[in-house]
Amino acid sequence: MNENLQTWVRSGKPWIWLNAGMASAAIIMVVGLLLYIAVRGLSHFWPDPVVRFEYAEADGKLSKVLGEIVETETLSAARLRAIGMTPPPGETRVQRVLIKTANRDLTGADFQWFLRHNVRNEEHPEGVLELEREEWGNFIGFPLALKENGKVVERGSALKSGLAARLQRRAAIKAEIRDIEKDRIGAVNHRLEQMRRQERKAEAGGMLDAEARAAFDEERKSLDRQYAALTGQLGKFYADIRRDSLLMKTVDGTEVDIPFEKIVRAYEPNAMGPFDRLVFFFGKFREFVADDPREANTEGGIHPAIFGTVLMVIIMAVMVTPFGVMAAVYLSEYAKQGPLTRMIRIAVNNLAGVPSVVYGVFGLGFFVYFLGGSIDELFYPEALPAPTFGTPGLLWSSLTLALLTVPVVIVATEESLSRIPKTIREGSLALGATKAETLWRTVLPMATPGMMTGVILAIARAAGEVAPLMLVGVVKLAPSLPLDGNAPFLHLDRKFMHLGFHIYDVGFQSPNVEAARPLVYATAFLLVLVIVVLNLTAIRIRNRLREKYNAAES
Q1: What is the DSSP string of 40-61?
Q2: How far is CA 283 from the centre of its chain?
Q3: What CATH fold (topology level) applies to the domain 303-553?
Q4: pLDDT at 363
Q5: Which residues contact 45 (CB under 8 A, 6 or more apart)?
Q6: pLDDT, position 268
Q7: pLDDT in tens, 487-497
Q8: How far is CA 58 from CA 61, 72, 83, 140, in A?
Q9: 498 φ, ψ to 5°?
Q10: Which fold does the domain 50-127 belong to in CATH?
């Protein structure tokens, strides 16, 4: 038996099984982590039923509570006393529930903890309506009447159909307001700023004569007329959307008049079937992906953060690939292999281990203040003292991350070039090709899959970096996207939103912790999906290149 065991150990099979087991355990842990993040994040979009119960206070009085059960946990009596709650006498382990009571504008908090032991007469009431609002979070209560210009127009059975019609009307008006504010007025303001700079530049250059000044004044008057007309339309839309309101009653009988201007969505969670809940779930998830954030990033969507992350990674990849490839080609093909080259390779490898925040500090000092300030003085003096490129923005963020990831591309490209047999180079040279032609037409195409591997690794690292971006361009809320319909269309000087920074901001800077927690999980899950999609796209390109050049080689 011992001899068989020793033979089995010497054969190396135990180490194979150990490695396979560790790899399996790592995969299981990664998948488990992703599933946990997905469940905690995506459950936020599922409509939970609303419960109503009576709660026995410490003085013996019963208070009415209406809300969604968010979380249930069991704590020790000592722990409850430490957090300011009084456990039932004689109990050592007590269960408490977190209820989303909403109505933060009335109570000051939309999440409250209750001891399960003190809950009485729990039920799921009919007719309860939950409103998702643009501010102050959700409102949970019972609808009483629809109002138009302060007068009641619908009650009872007609209220539900009237509510749906007015919500559709509100959505249409909001779309018009958004189009005027973000696109049409934005275009007018953009042109006015361009004119201001052009006028200052002409004045500084001595070319602002009477005729040029008159042309500027005429165009400015035309833009002012457009702006006045748009603001007039905007005022009419706002007056129109403020016409309707919904009278609601809370669980304690308080009546609240809520204007439709602030209502995003209304639904009856206790009357929804499985299919209705599924439709609601996908609608909320679509809003999360496609809409702008609101309520200090704790409500609404994260579309600007997704857009900013993807655009920054694409620009970074476009910048890092040629620099990394050229550096690797020089080190591998042209540089004399000696102590200096070895020192350069060691320096490149060490750069990969430098903390990312150090790159952020360098980017702020060199790219933003030195390079950006010089660009402003040379090309945008008419805008000074307001900076154009001398302030954190998309360009400097992409360059900083390109600098951070260039060692990865250099190492991967060098390894790919070293794997190409010398016989291929010698055969090309023997046929009369120059070294540059051999490199450009034979070696580099065959090394392309390895280069793409470096780009894939660079994308994977850059997409999740946050620390350097906090110094060189990312912001909590960006007023506009870096890509729009105003020339030059791609605005590299603008600040942008990023999924990684959004997670940090919502998770650690939000005043409403309970409302922000599920959004942290949902945003983290979406960030993982964005990285996976970017990597799969790069992997697909790499595989196509590999098939192409393998077929050509064979």
Answers
A1: HHHGGGS-PPEEEEEEE-TTS-
A2: 18
A3: MetI-like fold (1.10.3720)
A4: 93
A5: 280, 281, 284, 285, 288, 522
A6: 92
A7: 788 888 889 99
A8: 7, 21, 15, 25
A9: -140, 140
A10: SH3 type barrels. (2.30.30)
